[in-house]
Amino acid sequence: MRYLKLLGIFYKYSFLKELEYRVNFLSNAFMSVFWMVWGIVSVSIFFLHRDRMGDWTFPEVLMVVGLFTFFNGVMESLLRPNVGAVIEQIRDGTFDFVLTKPVNAQFISSLRNIIVWRLVDVIIGIGLIVYALGQLHVTPTTGQILFFIGMLVSGIIIVYAIWLMMVSLAFWFVKIDNITELFYAFYEAGRYPITIYRGLVRVLLTYVVPIAFVTTFPASALLGRLDQNTTVVGLGFAIGLFVLSNRFWNFALRYYSSASS
Amino acid sequence: MIRKYLALLRRSIGLTLEYRAGVLIWMLVNIMPLVMLAVWYSLSEDGPIGGYSQNDFVSYYLLMTWVRQMTNAWVIWELEYEIRHGDLSVKLLHPLNPIHEYIAAHLADKVFRFVVMLPLVLLAWWLFPTIHYEATPITLTLMTVAMIAAWLIRFLVQYCFGILAFWISASITLNEIWFAASMLLGGIVAPIDLFPVPIQAVANYLPFRFMLSFPVEVVLGRLSSTEIGIGFAIMLFWVVFFVVLYRWLWAKGVRQFSAFGA
Amino acid sequence: MPHILVDHLRKYYQVHQKEPGLAGSLKSFIRRKYHDVKAVDDISFSIEPGEIVGFLGPNGAGKTTTLKVLSGLLYPTAGVARVLGFTPSERRAAFLRQITLVMGQKQQLNWDLPAMETFIVNAAIYEIPDDQFKQTLADLAELLELGPLLKKQVRKLSLGERMKCELAAALLHRPKVLFLDEPTIGLDVTMQTKIRQFVAEYNERYGATIILTSHYMADVTALCKRVIVIDHGKLLYDGDLHALAEKIAPHKLIRVEFSQALNGQRLEDYGEVVKRRGQRAELLVPRDATSDVAARMLAQLPIADVTIEEPPIEEVITRVFEQAAQVRAERGEGEEEAEDE
Question: For the whole prediction, is pTM greater than 0.95?
Answer without folding.
Answer: no
